[in-house]
Write a structure and sequence with these properties.
Elements (H helix, E strand, L loop, with lengths): L4 H14 L10 H8 L3 H14 L2 E4 L3 E4 L4 H25 L2 H20 L5 H14 L4 H17 E3 L5 H17 L2 H16 L2 E3 L26
Antiparallel strand pairs: 1-2, 3-4
Length: 231
């Protein structure tokens, strides 16, 4: 069975984000194919996609390598998210479906419950699902895919401090959903802009000032899981 290139792409991207491959490190088709249990054809296609996304660069005499973003490029990502997240929320206020609202409200209830209990282990995942669903509710595939790519790259370049008050964070999520449910695009945009700006303060560059997690390269082999969670 031929493994789809997008599954290989997801696996390699996830490992880059997780720090399995160090910044600037070579990505050879042969080793990647062996690691993920696939042929070199989907690996080659995946590397082309990842190069277009900015995770991989092709260097003369070296081939494909993990990109080495600058601090300015990393800062630009946060600025782009500050512009696009509010736009997505504004669009969602006019284009969301009842199914979107049901999921968003469910995530807010669950997040608020976990925040009250002090169970913070999965709050970050819940937050990611919330923002992914909010982007999907915008009804724009281009905007959704751009925001998804931004989240991947921000997760690669930054570590995020846990919020001092998770309850406040989920109260902000609730306010966003209320505005979206009312069809109030301007309110949705304003609340989301404030939420995004506050969250940006908690981001810390991973590659600033020397060694970081990317020095800890894992080498275990694993196969591509084609039925794994979406990203």
């Amino acid at each position: 069975m031929r493994i789809p290139a997008h599954s290989v792409c997801t696996a390699i991207r996830d490992d880059i984000v997780a720090g399995v491959y160090e910044r600037g490190g070579r990505l050879t088709e042969e080793l990647l194919a062996r690691r993920y249990g696939v042929s070199r054809v989907p690996v080659r296609e995946a590397l082309r996609t990842l190069e277009a996304e900015g995770f991989v660069v092709t260097r003369r005499h070296a081939g494909a390598c993990v990109a080495e973003p600058t601090e300015q490029e990393a800062a630009d990502l946060l600025e782009m998210r500050l512009l696009l997240e509010p736009l997505g929320a504004s669009r969602a206020a006019h284009r969301r479906t009842e199914a979107h609202l049901k999921v968003l409200r469910g995530l807010v209830r669950l997040g608020q419950e976990r925040a009250r209990r002090g169970s913070s282990d999965d709050l970050r995942s819940l937050g990611g699902w919330f923002h992914e669903t909010l982007a999907q509710a915008s009804g724009s595939h281009a905007l959704t895919s751009t925001l998804t790519q931004l989240r991947h790259k921000i997760a690669w370049m930054y570590s995020v401090d846990a919020p001092a008050s998770p309850a406040d964070t989920w109260a902000e999520h609730g306010a966003i959903v209320d505005a979206v449910a009312r069809g109030d695009g301007e309110r949705a945009r304003a609340v989301t802009a404030l939420h995004t700006e506050r969250s940006a303060v908690a981001h810390r560059l991973r590659f600033s000032g020397g060694g970081d997690r990317q020095d800890r390269v894992r080498t275990s082999q694993h196969s591509v899981n084609t039925s794994g969670p979406r990203h």
